[in-house]
Amino acid sequence: MTRNVLLIDWGRRAEKLLKELSTYTEKGPGVTRLPFSPEHKQALALLQKVMLNAGLSVSLDNAGTLIGRLEGPPDSKTFMMGSHQDSVRQGGGYDGIMGVILPIMALEKLKEESYKLPFSVEILAFADEEGVRFPTALIGSRALAGTYDSSVLSMVDSDGISLKQALTQFGLRPDQISHIKRSPNDIIGFLETHIEQGPILEESDEAVGVVTAICGIERHQIVIKGETGHAGTLPMSGRRDALVGAASIITEVNRMGQEETDLRSTVGSLSLEPNVVNAVPREVRMTAEFRSPNDDKRQSAGEHLHDFAKKIAAGTGLNISCSLTYEQMAQPCDKTMSVILEKSILSFGGRAISLPSGATHDASAIADLCPISMLFVRCRDGVSHKPEEFASSDDMGMAISVLATFLKQVQNL
Ligand code: HGY
Ligand code: MN
Ligand code: MN
Ligand code: MN
Questions:
Q1: Could you state, in order of their start, the residue ranges of all structural domains in the chain?
Q2: What is the DSSP-derived secondary structure letter of residue 380?
Q3: What ipTM describes this predicted complex?
Q4: Is 112 labeled as ligand-binding?
Q5: Which end of the chain is more exposed for a tag (fewer CB within 10 A), N or C?
Q6: Which numbered atom of ligand 1 lies nearest the CA of 361?
Q7: CATH class belonging to 10-215+332-411
Q8: What is the pLDDT at residue 5?
C-alpha cells in the first residue's frame, strides 16, 4: 500500500472508533461523558477491547485511569502517552479521547510492521481532566505524579455525591489512590496528543503542530455586596448597586486581555441577588480567570485585579472581596521530545509549526513526574467544547504516522 493509503486507513479506523465512543454520552446534543458515570464505564469497555487488540495488557488504577501497557525488554523504562476520556457538557467527540485512540493506532501500526520498541509503553485514559462533575480536576494524572491531594475526595457533584462515593460506586478504592504514584526513574517521558481547540493549524494549513508550552491558569472568586431597593423609588444618586460595580470589574478584566499579548482574561460565571427586574442588585458572585504561558504576566494580572477591585469599592461604597481559588503554573514542553516530534512531522511533509496551548491538559500535571510533550491536531474552525468539534481522518492519519515515527526515535532521549 502507498503511504497515502496507509495514512487514510489509520485515520479512518480512528474516526470509526471515535464515532462509536461519542455514542457513550448523556442526552445530547454533543457528548456529555462525565467521570465515574455509566457512560465512562461504556467507554472503558470499548477502550479495553481496542487496547487488547493492539497487543496491550490492560488495567484500571484506583483513580479510574485505564492503562494499556506494551511490555518492553526486562528492566526497560516506560514511555507514556494518553489523554482524558471525559468531556465537558454537550462537548465534542475529540477533546481528550482522540489522544487515547491515536497512540493506540500508532502502536498497532508498529505491531503490523513487526517493529519492536526497546522500551515499554503505557497508554493512559484519564477519568477526569475537565473538572465538570466535581470542582477539581486532573485526579488521575496528579495521582501518577504524586501531587494528588486526598482532600478532593470530600468534594461533591450537583447531586451531592462525593468524589469518594463516586469512585467507590465505580468499583475503585479511593483510599489506595496515594499509592499510584510512579517513580520518575522508571519513566522516559509523556506525550499527549490533543485536538488544538483553536484556529492556528487551520490558518497555517497544517494537519499537526508541536506545543511549546501549556499555559498557566489562575481563577479568582469575586463577591460584590451592595444594597437592594425599589428600582422605581430608590434615587439614582447614592445607590450601592452591586451589578454596576461588577460591570466596571468585568470591563477591566476584558481590557487586560485585549491589551496584553499572551494573556487571556475571562469572567466566565456570574450570579446575582435578588435577580429581579424591579430591584437594585444587592450581591454579585463571579469568577475571573487569567491564562498565559508567562506566569509573571498572569500573576501580575491577578494582583492588578485585586487592586482595581479595592479602587472600585472605595469609589462606590460597595463591599468587594477577591480570592484566588485555583492556580496552575505554565508548563514548558521538553525541547528534545519537541525536536523529535518536529523531525517526524517534517518527514511526512508537514512544516512542523509550533504553538502554545491556551487550554490546560493532563500533561500539565504529568510534568511533575517526567518531561512532557504535546502534539496538536488541526481543529475545524478552531471550535471545541461544542458538538461541532471536528478533526479529519486524514489529519488523524498524519498524527498516527508522526506518533509511530516519534516512538522509533524516542530511545535517543
Ligand atoms: O479549561 C481547560 O483548558 C480544559 O479544557 N479543562
Ligand atoms: Mn476540554
Ligand atoms: Mn482536553
Ligand atoms: Mn481542555
A1: 10-215+332-411, 216-328
A2: G
A3: 0.86
A4: no
A5: N
A6: 4
A7: alpha beta
A8: 42
